Amino acid sequence: MNLWRLELARLIRTHRWMILVGVFGLFAVTGPLLVAYLQEFVDLVGGGVVIELPEAGPDEAILGYLDGVSDLGLLAVLLVASAALAMDARPEVTAFLRTRVTGAWSLVLPRYAVTVAATAITLVAGTAVAWGVTAAVLGGPAAVPVLLGTGCAALYLGFAVAVVAVAASWARGVVGTMLASVLALLALPLVALVEPVRPWLPSELLGATGPLLAGAPATDLLPAVAVTLVATPALLALAVHRFARREL
């Protein structure tokens, strides 16, 4: 069994894939439904107090799903990626594998690629489910902005997993890797407070669907896409370099 098949088997047999499917699937169903029936829910628990909410449309419903993906969905991805890439959490396994591969790339790349592929598939499937639920209760949102926004979100999640790879090259445990990754990714919204820098940050891609649905041109995202496409392989190269130099 090669390392690609091994990592795929590890993802399946450890049931880590269920974390992604559970979180993305949950928000794919509940996100649009909560937005669509929020007024009824408020009327039910309001105790007779009349609260008028703006009428929800299909755009708001699909964004209800994506809001969940941006928060707990991202944390789920970081957890699954940390479990995969924190190779030195089990030194005996790492020592066994390192004596049988030609370089650190052989260990890092399959773990990164399988995690990103599972994340992208789950994201796309969740978007399809959310689309179907939204179309059933409110009508379908505009197709092109949702497709472009989903692609941008997938690109950002690939970047986020690369950040996890770098964190794993510093921290040896799963918990330490995840905490370091969360802190690193939380720093990006803080940097976004500097307005001239904001359009260039990868974090702009995760919430790209909202502006696209509001009519923003897709070209506004090109700086963030360019930086992400450069930063992701650079981060992977850094992670490989550090893993190669790390002593067992």
Task: Give a verbal description of the structure.
This protein has 248 residues and is an all-alpha fold. The protein has one domain (3-245). Helix content is 74%, strand content 0%. It has helices at residues 3-13, 16-36, 38-45, 58-85, 91-98, 105-137, 143-170, 174-191, 209-213, 222-245. Helix 2 packs antiparallel against helix 4 (58-85), helix 2 runs parallel beside helix 6 (105-137) and helix 4 packs antiparallel against helix 6. The longest helix has 33 residues, at 105-137. The radius of gyration is 20 Å and the shape is globular. The protein starts with a helix and ends with a helix.
Features:
248 residues; mainly alpha; 0% strand
Write the layout of secondary structure elements.
Layout: H1 3-13, H2 16-36, H3 38-45, H4 58-85, H5 91-98, H6 105-137, H7 143-170, H8 174-191, H9 209-213, H10 222-245
Structural class: mainly alpha
Number of strands: 0
Radius of gyration: 20 Å
Distance between the termini: 24 Å
Mean pLDDT: 86
Proportion of beta-strand residues: under 5%
Task: Provide a short characterization of the protein structure.
The chain has 248 residues and is mainly α. The protein has helices spanning 3-13, 16-36, 38-45, 58-85, 91-98, 105-137, 143-170, 174-191, 209-213, 222-245.
